[in-house]
Amino acid sequence: MKKYFILLFAASLLLFTQTSCNRASANKKSVTWNSLEELVSQMTLAEKVGQMTQAERGDIREGDIKTYFLGSILSGGGSTPAENTPEGWVDMTNAFIEESLQTRLGIPVIYGLDAVHGNAIVLDATVLPHNVGLGAIAAGDSRRGAEAAYSAGFITAEEMLATGVRWNFAPVLGVAEDIRWGRTYESYSENVEIVTVMGANFVRGLQEGGAAACMKHFLGEGQTIDGRNQGNALLDRAGIERILPPYRAAMDAGAISLMPSYSSINGIKMHESKELLTGLLKEDMGFEGFIISDWAAFIQLSGGSFKAQIANAINAGVDMYMATNGRANWMMFITLLKDLVEEGIVPMERIDDAVLRILRFKQSIGLFDAPLTKKAGTVGSDANRTVARTLASDSLVLLRNENNVIQKLPAYRNILVAGHGANNIGMQCGGWTTTWQGMHGPVTKGTTILEGIRSATEGRAVVTYDEDGKADGNFDVVIAVIGEDPYAETQGDRASLITGPDPDHVSAEDIDTLRNRSNQINIRPNDMDMLWEAYGYDCPVIVIMLSGRPMTIGDEYLHWDAFVAAWLPGTEGAGIADVLFGNRNFTGRTPYTWRKTINGEILYPFGYGLTK
Ligand code: GLC
Predict the structure, then answer these.
(1) Does the pTM of the predicted model rise above 0.70?
(2) pLDDT tens profile 89-120
(3) What is the dihedral of CA 154, 155, 158, 161, to 10 degrees?
(4) Contact at 8 Å (CB) between 83 and 376?
(5) How far apart are CA 24 and CA 40, in angstroms?
(6) For a substitution probing ligand 1, which of 56, 113, 114 has the most ligand atoms within 8 Å of its CB?
(7) Confidence band (pLDDT; 50, 70, 90) for 522?
(8) How many CA atoms lie within 13 Å of 415's alpha carbon, on the beta-carbon side?
(9) Tens of pLDDT along 537-556?
(10) pLDDT of the residue at 32
(11) Among candidates 313, 278, 533, which has minimal Cα distance to 419?
(12) Looking at residue 284, what is its pLDDT?
């Protein structure tokens, strides 16, 4: 018995220290509080509404955080400090937090961003395979997949904390069921079980690494008609239940923030669905964390005015608004929400509930106790790149291997490497890298597929590179790298481009460009030209595909002696050569059903892949 008293005393001593520590750190001023509930009761309406407001780093001026009590700042895709280094990020985030500590209550601001495949926005950070590739690992072996997701989360957290950022708008828990959806690569798979295992393990890795996850985008984003991003999904109760396991598992793994989807279910926008955000998520599923909206998502809602849209979303259960349509917009949000409360349209109880959830989140990630980052860390370490390279290797899926040509690779002495993707870090990484949409070319530090092949065959083979596949000479084999241009979100849609995405998201000329693209996810014209050059050599052709989803290749594969899906492998392209020339088995399997054309004949079923 005595032992338990000692434990109990130690625990209460710890609790007192913790509480007093909370009081001291968050209340340098006269205000003291013993619990978050008590803190909320001390807050003015302006302080409460400020906590519910998130602004983009480019939309605030010095003094705004202090004047408006802003609760959170974010980086949108590609939004970096002038010095895009860990030191530059720590200086920026610390400055925001220090300003928030100067407010009456000293509640620290929380900084968030999308580190969806490593903290890829930071120059020369380790960029991991996108989720589609990690899903390919899981489709081959669920346990290896779980380990891969955990490692991805842990490394991502390390390289986030190195920059002073603790909150990650990840993982995507959507189950992509139509590959025309531009966010297919952010999903792990069409298979609910894979998404469930991968999402929960990513959350565990991320949070055990010291950062906080944000489950997204709740709910039904992968079930929209024709795969249209932000479209409408027709789901009955059973259809909703079927896609809930990833969220239940991620909550069990400790995730306590969540982002609704822009999309709708049965014509009701998720951001204003009280039935699903409050009824299902907060009440039935017992979600005690907080709901952050998506980017300026309120302006898509019903109500006919921004004020009505705010009321609809907050009363539905959204707790913080990502108010990212400029400085005037977040200021307008604050003014209108205060008016809504004073007019009784948004009850104070709803505001108090939202603020308490936000403060609970901040406390749980230690923001009250240690709000500032003492010293910038490093990104892109050799150790992390080694893990990323292994994940790239493990994600490869061998779909075709005629006459065991892969096994013959190490014996070849004259190799032609061709294709725009062969020497292209940006194409390996895809969207959500140093820029939102991603870009071709040497966007950040890493190794290309070509560099990996040269290194793996050094002293054994002559490797010639010609992007167009037009080099003179006699070759033992051609390795042709094809794939998708980088993209993110609606810009990656291949179904909705006929109608065009929301003009507020994409400029008029971009819409024309996007509409001109085929609504097939087919091989790009310059890749086709290169392939026909490659077929002209009297030797086998091995095709490697860099894509965020299965591409619609028709019967073109019949010209290919071997075909490897590499997905979006990230910065460590050398991981591809490790398998091709390493006499290693292929462990990945396709996480998506692969059809010859959109909704056409199945070429490779879900889970297919050769070992060698
Ligand atoms: C984007 C995405 C969301 C992301 C947010 C902040 O529009 O839909 O996934 O977390 O904005 O960048």
Answers:
(1) yes
(2) 999 999 999 999 999 999 999 999 999 999 99
(3) -90
(4) no
(5) 17
(6) 114
(7) confident
(8) 26
(9) 999 999 999 999 999 998 99
(10) 72
(11) 533
(12) 98
Neighbours of 599 (CB within 10 A): 10
- Give residues (CB < 6 A) around ligand 1: 76-77, 114, 169, 216, 294-295, 489
CA 450 to chain centre: 27
Query: DSSP letters of 238-282?
Result: HHHHHT-HHHHHHHHTT--EEEE-SSEETTEEGGG-HIIIIIIII
Phi, psi (degrees; rounded to nearest 5) at 96: -65, -45
Q: Do the strands 397-401 and 562-565 form a parallel or antiparallel pair, or are they unpaired?
A: antiparallel
- Kindly state the tokens that stand for 19: 């509480």
Tell the residue nearest (CA) to atom 10 of ligand 1: 169
Residue having the nearest C-alpha atom to atom 8 of ligand 1: 294
Catalytically annotated residues: 294, 489
Rounded to the nearest angstrom, the distance between the alpha carbon of 297 and the centre of ligand 1 is 10
Distance 610 CA to ligand 1 centre (A): 36
Residue whose CA is at the smallest distance from ligand 1 atom 1: 295
Residue nearest to atom 7 of ligand 1 (CA): 295
Count CB atoms within 10 A of the CB of residue 102: 12
Phi, psi of 142 (to 5 degrees): -60, -40
With a cut of 90, say whether residue 385 has pLDDT above it.
yes
Q: How far is the CA of 511 from the centre of ligand 1 (A)?
A: 20
* Res 495: pLDDT: 60
Could you tell me the two tokens for 438?
Answer: 């991603």
Q: How many CA atoms lie within 13 A of 395 on its CB side?
A: 41
* pLDDT tens digits along 556-589: 999 999 999 999 999 999 999 999 999 889 999 9
SS3 per residue for 188-227: CCCCHHHHHHHHHHHHHHHHHCCCECCEEEECCHHHCHHH
| Residue 89 main-chain phi, psi, to 5 deg | -70, -45
Preceding peptide of 505 cis, ω within 30°: no
Give the whole-angstrom CA distance, residue 568 versus residue 429. 5
pLDDT of residue 298: 98
271-313 residue pLDDT tens = 999 999 999 999 999 999 999 999 999 999 999 999 999 999 9
Distance 186 CA to ligand 1 centre (A): 11
Residue 577 three-state SS: helix
Average pLDDT, the chain: 92
594 phi, psi to nearest 5 deg? -110, 115
Instruction: Kindly give the number of the ligand 1 atom that is closest to the alpha carbon of 216.
Output: 9
| Structural tokens at position 421 | 């993707």
